[in-house]
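Onboarding guide, step 5: your first structure request.
Type a short instruction followed by the sequence, for example:

Predict the 3D structure of this protein.
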Amino acid sequence: MADVAPFRALRYDQSKISSLTSVVTPPYDVINAQQQAEYYASAPYNIIRVELNKKRQSDSAKENRYTRSAQHFANWRAQGVLRRDREPAFYLSETTYTDAEGHQRVRRGFFTLLKVEDVSERKVLPHEKTFTVHKEDRFQLTKAVQANISPIFALYPDDDNQVMAALDAAREAEPIEDFVDPLGLPQKLYRISDGQACRRVQELMADKIIFIADGHHRYETAINYRNYMRSQMPQAGPQASFNYTMTYLCSMNDPGLTIFACHRLLPHLEGFAAEDFLPLARPYFDVQEISIHGRPDEVRRRITQALAEADARGNSLGLVSHESDTGYLLTLKPGVAESLGGPDMEGPLAKLDVVVLTSLVLEKLLGLDNAARDQEHTIQYLADMHDVLDKVRYGKARLAFLLNPTKVEQVQAIATAGLVMPRKATYFYPKVLTGLVINPLDPAEKVAGCPQ
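The system replies with structure tokens like these:
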């Protein structure tokens, strides 16, 4: 089912830059304005200038952040700052990080081209809803730059680890990149250009369904861009470059695969606090107080432990409020989920805390419909509980709802059933770097096969 292909990546020529650390970034959608400015200042060739160029008041239809992105990209290629590998290859990535419990882990995956398939084909499956504004933004960038700057992060089932074993057996002895990224995480990148290994990986992937982990906006953009290019070049064949998109694939069984919770903050509920919300919630939830006094690490641990223990009893949420020095654990009462009904509570969706939060709390109790939730200023999404607690403590958010992480098997069950979770239902960690490898989308170029 999955059609993967090696590609000739564009990569930074390290003789032209101070370090890879200074030019790569996390994906655009986890970069705030302050971080954007810091990446701008870190190096003149930082990928932020292409991936997330700054807006200007003088922007027009002819001169805007997308045209500036395209100009930077073209200039860097002309100057040799970005050079294209001679042979098509898969690129094996290793990222070392520390998990929430303080354990060192390594996540392993590989960069490849993945054939773009309509969701209705059931070959590449999403699991969550997206924001309209993000999709339009990514489409405009792709049209202007004609390249995949940032990869989609996707998962595939592989109980016996056969794909990674085939890649390991053929990888070059030394990594082509070995550095510490801007977030302090050690990164290694290996190239696999052996033809036999390439064909073996294609064979192993051919019967697998792909599950999008991160980058739903980018995948929807890949579909839209493919359709757009087909209308512009109807004579192009199935191997035309725009029929594929750059993807980072990781096995669902990889021991380094981690999902964090993505918590919700409501910054604009002026005059509305926990004491106002709890009477609305009590008919549906059992409410238990949680002390939020003490050092931040202790508070985070206390809330995380309470949520984990409640998870065994049913759907559970944490609640903190700017006006209250007490936190709360909300556990859904028996039978409530069944009484809610509706398409958003079908089958495996009903087991997800984030669905209960969205359908019952945000929509039913607080009146935030889908249109309101599609606006970024209505709800903020953060994975770092320390950051969440700080924003609530200092009044940058009125309320915050805290969640248990969604499990990998839940992602698979939801996507397989053809259902979708609410926006930002998962936070896969670490994020896949932007700028480590880039895939140019020359409309006249065909996707290469495996080396002979």
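Each response can be followed by summary notes, for example: The two ends are 23 Å apart (CA to CA).
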